[in-house]
Amino acid sequence: MDLRYLPVTQPNASAKSPITVLRIDPHLWELELIGSSQTGESAGHTAREWCEAHNLTAAINAGMFKTDGNTHVGFMRFREHVNNGKVNSYLSVAAFDAHDPTSPAPFRIFDLDAPQITLQSILKDYDSAVQNLRLIKRPGWNQWGQQGRMWSEAALGEDASGRVLFLFSRTPFSMHDLNQELLSAGIGIVAAQHLEGGPEAQLYLQVGELKLEMFGSYETSFVENDSNAKPWPIPNVLGVRPRTSTTR
Fold first, then answer.
1. In Å, how far are 42, 88, 132, 168, 185 from 215, measured between CA atoms?
2. Percentage helix, strand, coil, to 5, in the chain?
3. Are 248 and 97 in contact (CB under 8 A)?
4. Whose CA is closest to 218, among 180, 173, 164?
5. Residues 6 or more apart from 181 whose CB is under 8 A from it?
6. pLDDT value at position 42?
7. What is the pLDDT of residue 51?
8. Would you state the pLDDT for residue 247?
9. pLDDT for 198-226, tens place per residue?
10. Residue 199 in contact with residue 232, Cβ under 8 Å?
């Protein structure tokens, strides 16, 4: 697991907080989706609280959720538990828990408009999958045109070596500009999906005495300032913990 901060290069960025990149080797770290639909709780928790309650080393938003405050907006399955079984129009699916434990790709972000790729084909090889809005298409194509809307961002990426990237920016960007920052940063990113924006976006990490709790603020037409001072509860997170010899 590596932690890196990317300096903001966009000259018109409204703030200059660096972009955080947590790079994770999925051969050494186990991914887990956890949320209130599994625990039966009526309210969500912050990423830090999810980590503390479920022994996770790091956690990030699992994706946007519906107005019921529980259900993921796209397909979401973690092993035997299905949070949302309906597929929407979003073209990015992150998959893990490969059926073959010797799989060279224990984690992969798939494009649903790639040849011969469907959710059904993905689930033939992986037990867990989460569908989200696409940011970067394999092998590194910015999928967003320029727009006026911008927000703090939590995103999930994959690099050219198949490593997981937890990505967070308190600095608000249009998604076109954020993609350009990531693609030009030399981190080898080949695919990425949007998880959450604005004050609900967050990333938490605790390794030894190191504790990092990062959360967003700005979102066009919602919270148009940088004043948010605490993380908001969220219903679902994607977390990691060290693999053991018995981990599936």
1. 22, 27, 20, 8, 22
2. 10, 45, 45
3. yes
4. 173
5. 6, 8, 9, 10, 19, 173
6. 86
7. 98
8. 47
9. 999 999 999 999 999 999 999 999 999 99
10. yes
Could you report the average pLDDT of every consecutive run of 10 residues in the chain (248 residues)?
Answer: 93 80 97 96 94 97 96 98 98 96 91 97 97 98 96 98 98 96 98 98 96 97 96 98 72
Angle at the Cα of 150 from the Cα atoms of 179 and 135, rounded to 5 degrees: 30
Q: Which backbone phi and psi does 163 adopt, to 5 degrees?
A: -80, 150
CB atoms within 10 A of CB 113: 10
On whether the CB atoms of residues 83 and 37 are closer than 8 A, the answer is yes
Strand, helix or coil at 38? helix
Is the model's pTM score more than 0.85? yes
What number of residues does the chain have?
248
Strand 151-159 to strand 164-173: parallel, antiparallel, or no bridges (unpaired)?
antiparallel
Pairing of strands 151-159, 134-137: unpaired
Report DSSP letters for 103-145, one per residue: -S-SEEEEETTSTT--HHHHHTTEEEEEEE-EEEETTTEE---
pLDDT of residue 12: 73
Are the C-beta atoms of 223 and 199 separated by less than 8 Å? yes
